Structure formats: structure tokens, C-alpha cells
């Protein structure tokens, strides 16, 4: 699977370039989907780039994308390997011009993510990982720099990755201690912040899809962290009709007593 990394990074960059072309335009074609989440011309254009690129690279591997028709479970339950895409994670941030949005590509094998790529178009930075290979960050604007190997670290004071407009009091309900924060939009970018050691944890309270965690999970795990549901159970992929995730926790260094910090009575409220 490691051989897929470089061509997929290139495909993600191409999608990012298309996104940035629309980002600078006045009319981004914002609409509301049937689930009341926003979509723009950038989401659709990036989706097209990703699907065309992956179909050319691996014509026999099926693709599931947030911005395409999701096949019913009986059509996909026997897939042993498939691409899982979020063409632009952080559409709301794109609309608000915060710069915090990302292209997500994951390869799922036997219901587990084994390869992940998260490209941050505004910074022209790519996070990528492959099972048994490690997790890395590449800054394309600095080609002389070597890829940075990612490793979670334990901060002296617990540091949470949070959304820029998040009500911190909501997050504090789920922890038994004080914490510092680092603000960044997009689920996948917050997971990357944990993977590269800038934060210890990210609590996601609210609806997400499997495409929001697929690439993140590989990157975080290969950096030494974990992504689990709020009940500390594995996130499932392609095993249910519904593709919505439970609330989840992105955890960094295992020296933190995560189960004790997310107290039992709070964990029941988490769901």
C-alpha cells in the first residue's frame, strides 16, 4: 500500500488546487444538502478530481465519497478494500474564509483504515500515513525540507484542539481537569494537530461521517495515538447502513489516563 502514497498525495494536491481557485471567487455556489449541511462548488469540483484520479490509479477499487451517492449496505458490504473520501472537510470554514479545510483520502481494507492522506490547501501542507510505515507531514512550499515524522507528545498541561467558534464550556463538561486549548477548524485538521504533537486530545461532540475519521485514524495511530468512540470502542467502517460516526475522541500520548479523565457519568452524556 505504501506505493499508493505518492500518487495519492499528488491527487490530493490537485483537488486542493481546484478548491483554492474557487476559494478566491465571490460566488462559491453555497447550497444546503438534504441533511442541512452546506456544500459548495469547491466540494463538488474536488470530488470530481479525486474520483477521476483514483479511478485512473486503481480502476478495480471502489470509491465511497461524502459528495457522491452512498451505495446501500447490501451493495458494499462485501468490499474488502475501498477508497473513502471527504473531498473537503470543513466546508463551513471554507465558507467563512478561515482557511481551515482539508482534502481527505483514506484506503480501507477489511473494515480498517490502512492509508490516510489529509491535504491542507491554504498551507499547501500534506499529512500522510500508511500502516506499518509511519506518519509524516510534508510542506510543499519548502521543498528543501525533509518530510517530518509525526509523533504524539504529552504536554505538561493537557492541551485540547478545539474549533475556532466552539463553546469551551461544553467541552469542559467532559473532562475532570483544567486544560489549555489550540484552535483550528475541520475535524481532520484537529486530528493532525494531535498527531504532530501540538495538542493532546480532540473531543468531537456532534455528527460526523466515516469519511471524517478514515484518513485521520491512520495518521493518528501511526503517530502513536488513537481514535475511539466516546465509549472507548473502535470506530466502524462499512459495517452499517448508516455511515454516521458516534461522538469520538482523538487521543495523543497514552501516558494520559484517558478513561479516568473522561469520567464515566460524563461518557454516558457524551452519547
Layout of strands and helices, then pairs:
Blueprint: H1 5-23, E1 31-32, E2 38-39, H2 41-57, E3 63-65, H3 73-76, E4 81-89, H4 91-96, E5 102-109, E6 112-120, E7 125-130, E8 134-139, E9 148-149, E10 159-162, H5 168-172, E11 180-183, H6 187-195, E12 201-204, H7 214-222, E13 226-229, E14 248-251, H8 258-261, H9 264-270
Helix pairs in contact: 1-2, 6-7
- How would you state the average pLDDT, rounded? 92
* The CATH C-level class name of the largest domain: Alpha Beta
Shape: globular
Sheet with the most strands, sense and barrel status: 7 strands, mixed
Range of helix content: 25-40%
Q: What percent of residues are in strands?
A: 15-25%
CATH superfamily of the largest domain: Fructose-1,6-Bisphosphatase, subunit A, domain 1
Task: Please report the number of helical segments.
Answer: 9
Strand runs, count: 14
Structural class of the helices, strands and pairings?
A: alpha+beta
| Count of discrete domains | 2
Distance between the ends:
35 Å
Order of helices and strands: HEEHEHEHEEEEEEHEHEHEEHH
Strand order of the largest sheet: 3-4-5-6-7-8-9
